[in-house]
Amino acid sequence: MIWNTNLRWRLPVTCLLLQVALVVLFGVFVRYDLDADPHWIGRQGDENTTSDMENEFYYRYPTCTPPAPGLPCGVQGLLPQPLAKGAVAVAWATGRPLGLINADFCVGSVCVAFGAVLGKVSPVQLLIMTLFQVTLFSVNEFILLSLLEVKDAGGSMTIHTFGAYFGLTVTWILYRPSLHQSKERQSSVYHSDLFAMIGTLFLWMYWPSFNSAVSKHGDAQHRAAINTYCSLAACVLTSVALSSALHKKGKLDMVHIQNATLAGGVAVGTAAEMMLMPYGSLIVGFICGIVSTLGFVYLTPFLESRLRIQDTCGIHNLHGLPGIIGAIVGAVTASCASAKVYGIKGLANFFGFDGFKTSWDSSMQGKFQAAGLFVSLAIALVGGIIVGVILKLPFWGQPADENCFEDSVYWEMPEEPKSTALHPEDSTLKPAEP
Amino acid sequence: MIWNTNLRWRLPVTCLLLQVALVVLFGVFVRYDLDADPHWIGRQGDENTTSDMENEFYYRYPTCTPPAPGLPCGVQGLLPQPLAKGAVAVAWATGRPLGLINADFCVGSVCVAFGAVLGKVSPVQLLIMTLFQVTLFSVNEFILLSLLEVKDAGGSMTIHTFGAYFGLTVTWILYRPSLHQSKERQSSVYHSDLFAMIGTLFLWMYWPSFNSAVSKHGDAQHRAAINTYCSLAACVLTSVALSSALHKKGKLDMVHIQNATLAGGVAVGTAAEMMLMPYGSLIVGFICGIVSTLGFVYLTPFLESRLRIQDTCGIHNLHGLPGIIGAIVGAVTASCASAKVYGIKGLANFFGFDGFKTSWDSSMQGKFQAAGLFVSLAIALVGGIIVGVILKLPFWGQPADENCFEDSVYWEMPEEPKSTALHPEDSTLKPAEP
Amino acid sequence: MIWNTNLRWRLPVTCLLLQVALVVLFGVFVRYDLDADPHWIGRQGDENTTSDMENEFYYRYPTCTPPAPGLPCGVQGLLPQPLAKGAVAVAWATGRPLGLINADFCVGSVCVAFGAVLGKVSPVQLLIMTLFQVTLFSVNEFILLSLLEVKDAGGSMTIHTFGAYFGLTVTWILYRPSLHQSKERQSSVYHSDLFAMIGTLFLWMYWPSFNSAVSKHGDAQHRAAINTYCSLAACVLTSVALSSALHKKGKLDMVHIQNATLAGGVAVGTAAEMMLMPYGSLIVGFICGIVSTLGFVYLTPFLESRLRIQDTCGIHNLHGLPGIIGAIVGAVTASCASAKVYGIKGLANFFGFDGFKTSWDSSMQGKFQAAGLFVSLAIALVGGIIVGVILKLPFWGQPADENCFEDSVYWEMPEEPKSTALHPEDSTLKPAEP
């Protein structure tokens, strides 16, 4: 018997067949349950018990764990927390009270940007960068949510697109021509497999709760969780299929699986609370899995060699591109909103359209959503250039090229003992057993 | 002073004394609080405020984190997610809307079965196996919950018994006679201590929320969490006692502690939402800790050498046997249900017995519970044989014996750098400090 | 260009400037939102919908994950669980029903004490110590909460102060003069970087839910989460600043960051549910970050060399001192309570003062809070001495000095294979690829 373990065609084809079957099944059969539908008026349909809190969602599903967005940055993910609180303070100062969840979304955006520069900047630079980004995040969020009245529950625009392109612009300004030599060390130090895998699993688990955290109570929160979940599921199949198809022996690449599997959650962010439909979410996840995996294989090397953008953790593929996809999906979904789908009451309640505001229509909402994307990109690019130039000033303790990706430059490291930590029985100081 | 660190008798005796004291104390003194009792009619007992959502449970306890069941399988735990969504779709197609939590329970069942075959099959085989198992899981669940009207909140039968015996049957069909030689590698690769420990702690923490996730609102969900918690606690003491007693120097075995401590959660699955009583849960955990630890020490080697069942992760001890115990405990507890214990309203509400359906009685419910166990076992065995034969077909990319438990066959691995990832300061490329 | 990566003054100054700006901004602008204010009477202010469950908190924030306190102790954190259940049983026996959350708080206290003795005692000693500590914890909690009617939602006194000084007294009695030689092994074995980092991140995330878990429903729970969050955020900045300032090259110490960043959560425990105000929480976190980091640098070595207290994990800095600070902050905050701040109804509701109990006033509450601290310390010291003496008895299997911090004394370890677990492709048994 010949053992042929090259899965280059078998694995992708199996995945794609399953994917197509899934979309067809969902498209033909699956609709939102009553609890996740804008026509929702309480479980029993009884006036006396009408309450969003009676929604099945609150009996069964977890709620958002605020600081989780900082998880993949490790301990450095704690740094932006105090400054994001400052943004909350300033928001109060200007008469627009914000909750702590907004601060967490801000932390998420900062951690995304960190992913582009980690290992190449000093802790002081991280703090300065955070200070500016928190300010810009708040300005951008204010323009989008309050002036343009854009919907962006999962933050495809405010968190991911803004964070990613801000970080990429900063790292473009901080370009180090001779850094590509240490690429090998970069991947081994910063992609510690075990930690990244735990991070991926937890983000995967909590993403539905992120995307539903600031939605309107009741059916909108419920729907946001369902849509996110469907998109993430589709993204897994696509990433596995493409990762295998792009390797000459059909092997899977851990970096693709760890990152591209999450891209579906980003791409469904804006539209998650809308009537995207479960099969729509599957299609979004499918497209995003393709784009994200292709990005890791072809775009990241191109950005580094031609555009001089050194993207440490590949945030362009996990946050940049999926964020833009998410914004576009949101604009399209919003421009398709109708009283037929949401119900008249549901439409008014969801889009803040109260029946008297006759000027509102869905195509206008769609255009404003699109405008939100361009505003986010503009603020990210202009802000990133300014902050990058500031960070180039020579007194922030930036590391030399040889010290990049060396934790020991800024961290006191213990002397490595002769014995390994996990197997202390090999210690040279062998105990005499009684 | 002589330092005698052999705890072979001292540790087990201490544990057992504490265990007995615990059961006696609970048996004599502890009863369910109002919030976890079927007589529950709202906190103030006031008609106007009667609401399950007012139950203390929702103010204090966490709710289920859907995809957590996949945690111990690592990134491979994400694979069944899309296919389980497909089962949801098919369920909708046949007019029985299912929620996403059901899909997660299905994922849990698939991940249990994965535990028997991990390291010996290709990703394509995992996908094919998932496709069939998802179908069989749905059929089995439909027969149990809809036709037999069995109660199985924590899935002792539908998730654990079915998943474990399905997986064991598949690995029995896929038997590899010359694989036992690589046993050492198997344990070192697949039981990476740190990751397994984190997995155990998180599963331990979330198990009460799994077992209560699909129970009826209010007191039933509250009771399910309490019972699961008590059973898990008892299981810890028993596993520690027995693990030490079975080692010639009284040492603890990490594999027993990591696995047997969780078995109590499986064994209390079916009966968790019933009036099992806290001391009853302790006794279930106690029995299950013994059975599971003995299984690891004596049964797994026997299964491998005599029955040709190669159980990679020992799922028979964590899911198979505890699942059967759970089904039996559920049948016995159900057959003891009475209006005295549940209240007339509570009994009708809990078992769906509405006071007019005169044919229902508790002994009949008990018999149907027992029937549910046999149906689950039958579907698992027959299905496992069929799927095993399909997986033996030579074009699924199955690895040769020498490649089993080698991640590098299907995963692109980075070249290992000279320096270790955790201590980059030892790198040969030593930076010149300024 | 000269690359000066010594951040000794730049990093601390940046952090402190940000810290001051944060406190000023919060002090001038930020007040509690309606949902976190004791004047809270339901979202719409409408009598018909008045319900604590309508509080925004329950729609957005996570609830406590019971056994999480045991996380940093690893698998050993599961050991106290069954015994803490025993305390619940005894509490029921004496007519004071306790919930499982109390049992978890008890587990937290035991795990704190474990931190002082880990690696120097046998599993039997841990069980005996747990048995006594659970009893003493219940007695102390009964005196504080039921007799003195002290408020201690986050357990600064009952969990942290009591647990830490109990553990420190036990380790003082168990002093081993020749143990300081193995200090190097201690730090490498017990501070496994990766695991500690994951532990820190999860505790940081869940601390707001711990501190709010047993508060009164509605605004008090909401406020407890906000205050804890602010204190933790301030603590991060201070720890980073001081850790850098105390190193001769301005480097950060991982031990400080992993521990001192959490101290803010301990120090705000008692007062978290009170009207501490967000800026008050920032100040508490600021002070506590300083005290905790200084403790690691100067106090722990002093305790070991002069007072013969060998504090394995530095619990004095993370739980002992912050616990005392928390108790003092709580006493001061309580003695400042007034009808103006809480509202007349809010004051009566929060402090259990019903308007008729004319003898209650805030200064008396403050004095009782202070008394609670001294009771906790007294029970911890006296109890610790007695338990320490009992643990010195020669038949509990205590390890010899040479065996301390050696897991292999009590745990069966697998033979270490030639190949490393993470890179199985280097195995000597190289597979022949087809």
UniProtKB/TrEMBL annotation, chains A, B, C:
InterPro entries: Ammonium/urea_transptr (IPR029020), NH4_transpt_AmtB-like_dom (IPR024041), RhesusRHD (IPR002229)
Keyword Cytoplasm: no
Compartment(s) of residence: Apical cell membrane
Gene Ontology terms describing biological process: ammonium homeostasis
Keywords recorded for this protein, A-Z: Ammonia transport, Cell membrane, Glycoprotein, Membrane, Transmembrane, Transmembrane helix, Transport
Domain called Ammonium transporter AmtB-like: residue spans: 101-409
SUPFAM superfamilies listed in its UniProt record: Ammonium transporter
GO cellular component: apical plasma membrane; basolateral plasma membrane
Membrane topology: Multi-pass membrane protein
Transmembrane domains' residue ranges: 12-30, 100-119, 126-148, 154-175, 187-206, 226-245, 257-276, 282-303, 324-348, 368-391
Gene Ontology MF terms in the entry: ammonium channel activity
Keyword Glycoprotein tagged: yes
Reaction catalyzed: CO2(out) = CO2(in); NH4(+)(in) = NH4(+)(out); methylamine(out) = methylamine(in)
Primary role: Ammonium transporter involved in the maintenance of acid-base homeostasis. Transports ammonium and its related derivative methylammonium across the plasma membrane of epithelial cells likely contributing to renal transepithelial ammonia transport and ammonia metabolism. Postulated to primarily mediate an electroneutral bidirectional transport of NH3 ammonia species according to a mechanism that implies interaction of an NH4(+) ion with acidic residues of the pore entry followed by dissociation of NH4(+) into NH3 and H(+).
Subunit structure: Homotrimer.
Assigned protein family: Belongs to the ammonium transporter (TC 2.A.49) family. Rh subfamily.
Protein name: Ammonium transporter Rh type C
